[in-house]
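Priority: low. Protein: Damage-inducible protein DinB. Input follows.
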Amino acid sequence: MHTASVQQNILEELDRELAVTRQVLECVPTDHFDYQPHPKSMKLGQLSSHIVNLLKFKQLFIEGSERDFLDTSAPKPPPSPTSSEELLARFDQFSADLRQALHDSSDEKLGETFQLRRGEQVLMDRPKGAALRIMGLNHSIHHRGQLTVYLRLLDIPVPGVYGPSADAMGGF
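Result:
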């Protein structure tokens, strides 16, 4: 029996989550980018952009060894997209970049340590593969869940994520 490598397992999981995330992002209409369900919530456009920009953050887990949030020389996220088309184009590019970085990696490299810091304070110290799953994929899945709630509140049909949605089933 052949066991898949850590790299192969993460790539398979990533491909599944990217496909579902793209389906959800395809539902985000440009004319509702300013929608904010609560004063403490991000606007729809900000949340969607954050989900997309997290793809670059995940790539850092694979290619780098650390990220210090106090490092002012670190690359800043690009400006938020101003349209659904721009959002999806960035998603496609960042997804391809992340997939390539993971493809170019190995189980050995994914076992190396990645540190997330705020100056001297260590926020996370994990193997890259674990960091990618915990702070990368899980973080994105959390925000994608928020995004589906925004869509529901706007009465926009929500695609199925881990099975059919109420919209796909014709409601309850």
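The helical segments are 6-25, 44-63, 84-104, 107-110, 128-153. The mean pLDDT is 93.
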